[in-house]
Write a structure and sequence with these properties.
With 127 residues, this protein is α/β, with parallel strands linked by helices. Helices cover 17% and strands 42% of the residues. A hairpin with a 5-residue loop joins β7 and β8. α1 packs antiparallel against α2. Pfam families: Glyoxalase.
């Protein structure tokens, strides 16, 4: 067992810096059933650091600051039911990019959307 990292954590975790971290935490909880593993707030109540469990992965995020400005990224996430996940995302305020489809020669059914912070999420279920 590895002692250099928390139990059940991957060695590599995406770290998102966003303008409204709490809004994104709420959205990821609603869309992906994410759970908060650890959270540290700044004195003003903004999120300094939070770790979310999404299935077998951990992502980390924080509120942007002058020293660490917000920036957007793209993430790919395999989910058990891409259609249900995509619908939940749109129903929870995510902006659609492309509805889930299966392209010829691709074993994945894939859709995509932007989250509240403008990050591009691609969600897939392999057939």
């Amino acid at each position: 067992m590895a002692t250099y990292k928390p139990l059940h954590y991957n060695s590599l975790s995406p770290y998102l810096i966003v303008d409204n971290a709490q809004e994104l935490v709420n959205q990821l909880t609603d869309v992906f059933n994410a759970t908060v593993l650890r959270r540290y707030d700044r004195p003003d109540g903004s999120i300094m650091h939070v770790e979310l469990q999404l299935d077998d992965s951990v992502i980390m995020l924080s509120n942007s600051t002058a020293q660490y400005p917000a920036h957007k990224t793209m993430l790919h996430f395999y989910v058990p039911d891409v259609l249900a996940t995509y619908r939940r995302a749109i129903n929870n305020g995510c902006t659609p990019i492309s509805e889930p489809v299966n392209q010829p020669g691709d074993p994945d059914t894939r859709g995509s959307f932007y989250d509240a912070a403008g990050n591009h999420w691609s969600v897939s279920t392999q057939q």
